[in-house]
Amino acid sequence: MRKSEVKKILLLVVEPLAFGILALLFIIPTITVVNLEPLTKTLKEFDVLGLSNKAELQITIVGGTHQAFEKERLESTDGVYKYTTILKGRESDRYSKPILEIVNNKDEETILEIYGYTHLPTKSDITMIVNDQVYRLQRPNGDVETQQLLLLPRQKYILYLAIENFSNVQFDEDFELSIKEI
Amino acid sequence: MSKLLKRALKNSLIPAVLMIAGKALGIFILSAKYGFPLEIGNDVTGLFSTQIYFQDSDVTNFVNSVSDLVMLITIAVPTIYLITKTAIFQSTIQNPKTIVKVTKFNILKWITRDDTTFLKIFLWCAFLWLCSALIIKNSIEGDTYSWIGITAGLISLFCGFGSLKTFEVETNKVYPSNSKYY
Lengths: 182, 182
Fold this sequence. Notes:
The complex is a heterodimer of chains A (182) and B (182). By secondary structure, chain A is α+β, with helices and mostly antiparallel strands.
């Protein structure tokens, strides 16, 4: 094979690769900048031995990606935690996701008052699951129920949010969960 | 490999690096200056899963807004410079009065060499649009101050218009208008 032919074949391979690299030069900065966007999370407080010693309730967002849950946020004002998310339009099914990690750092039992609701009724059955125990938050007819959760001392709990609907939901809905220590 | 592709690759490197550097430096310098405690985690699964956490939602909002602004400035300033330089260069060709003004402002260096190509302006403008799109998305979601989103939108609009004018000038070089040259 002549040298010019080799060069021609090489160019055929290199050119599409160069286009790919050019595209990556746009894609990589975009993904990196999106990932660099800071999030809010209760940071762990450590003492000199590296152990957490603050005797209080600690609630942190689990995060992650899910087809039905989007834009999760957790805010805390005056001891009341407010978790918000967007429940995406979805097909009729049951969806669940771990949303919050609750740690009771106290040496005594703590009771939490929890209620959650969507801003518009969409005939979805919304529940939360803690230690395989199901607590109903909003009935399909829109009725909201306040639940109480007993937290044992020095225990960690993962709170799951579950939604179930028997017909397709076409629109996104805002969901809000309020957690208060009583 | 075509010359155009080679130059596109070469010219895209700097804005791509500056985009990431602007955002990252904005976050870390601001955190260091104001002493905001931050935590770097990788809770989100998938590509580039590193996340930066702040304790307070107001701090998160502030840091995200300012870092977005820093990123916008790092990309917008060179883009505006390139467009202005080309506009002045073209104006000096058509109007000798501009040379007097350029000399008065001591920016003769800008017009001594036409090293700014349309490709360069277009690539910088493309990165500016990318940045603006990300900032506007953040503004809509409430993660960035709305005035930064509006500023980003206006800058990208004007730069888009500027690059369009440059494109017109470049095409006039190849296909001069009949009334002028014939």
